[in-house]
Amino acid sequence: MRGEEQKLRQQIIDHCLAMNASGLNQGTSGNISVRFGDDMLISPSGIAYQTLKPEMIATMAIDDASGSWTGPLKPSSEWHFHQALLQDRPDANAVVHAHPTYCTTLAILRKDIPACHYMIAAFGGNNVRCSDYATYGTKSLSDLAVEAMKDRTACLLGNHGMIAIGDTLPKAMWRAVELETIARQYYFSLQLGNPVILSDADVEETLAKFTTYGLQETDDRKNYPARKAKNGRGRKSQTMAAGTGGES
Fold first, then answer.
1. Is residue 229 part of a domain?
2. For the chain, which terminus, N or C, has the lower number of CB atoms within 10 Å?
């Protein structure tokens, strides 16, 4: 295993642990993926994060929709939308999915998050959309997620949770935390009355300033190297059944 790949695998584990420690996620319901050339590295299904080792992270080809993987453990049941987003969004090198309380509460209400705070610009526009509902682990859910993420870097999944993307995993996790923060603020403002929503012009002004705002970091993108997928890697094949246990 090359150094870059080892680092990304450990980064997935570290961020899974941080996701639960921060309260952003509970149990093994969340999942994380990163781009590695033509492949996707993704957290495995149903494994306690504290027991994960780098070699347990599953590998899947981004352009292979068969569900085949390499590794000792099957990938997260949500591999469909992780793979679809990495295919659809060349600007994304990492995908974070979790079930944080306030995002999920708004998703149960099927509420988009409007421009109630200038930080909405962190997600690419004047709102964060909430998708319709589809069963976890299905292509139907994946299609809804891709649609809700058009021109955005985060979305809510109806009656389910949230997704955030980034050009690095730290940036995707930063967005996930900021999304739960603005979801909490919007939720409480709704309890007190009618929130005042910023205008499109206000959001556009903030978007223009966001090129130098938010999480600032050294250029981690070099850790997501481009490489051609190798043939004949002996991938194990698994059909992901939607009704065979809790999502992970």
1. no
2. N
Please give the average per-residue pLDDT across 49-67, as a whole number: 97
How far is the first Cα of the chain from the last one, in angstroms, to the nearest whole number? 25
Do the domain assignments include residue 246?
A: no
The pLDDT value recorded for residue 222 is 59
Are 94 and 172 spatial neighbours (Cβ–Cβ below 8 Å)?
Answer: yes
Q: Name the CA dihedral angle for 120, 105, 85, 237, rounded to a multiple of 10 degrees.
A: 160
CA distance 57 to 31: 11
Q: How far apart are the C-alpha atoms of 233 and 107, rounded to whole Å?
A: 40
> Given a cut of 70, is residue 119 above it in pLDDT?
yes
- Give the mean pLDDT of 211-220: 65
Burial class from Cβ neighbours inside 10 Å (0-12, 13-18, 19+) for residue 14 reads: middle
Q: Catalytic: 247?
A: no
Which residues, 6+ apart, have CB-to-CB distance to 239 below 8 Å? 67
**H/E stretch holding 107:** helix 101-108
Q: What is the 8-class DSSP label of residue 76?
A: P
| Active-site choice (78, 178, 180, 247) | 78
CATH number of the CATH domain containing 204: 3.40.225.10
Residue 223 in domain:
no
Phi then psi dihedrals of residue 70, to 5 deg: -115, 135
Of the listed ranges 84-98, 191-205, 221-235, the one predicted with least confidence: 221-235
Pairwise CA distance, residues 199 & 191, whole Å: 22
Q: Which two tokens stand for residue 150?
A: 């058009």
Range of the domain at 201: 3-216
The structure's pTM equals 0.88
94-98 and 113-114 strand pairing? unpaired
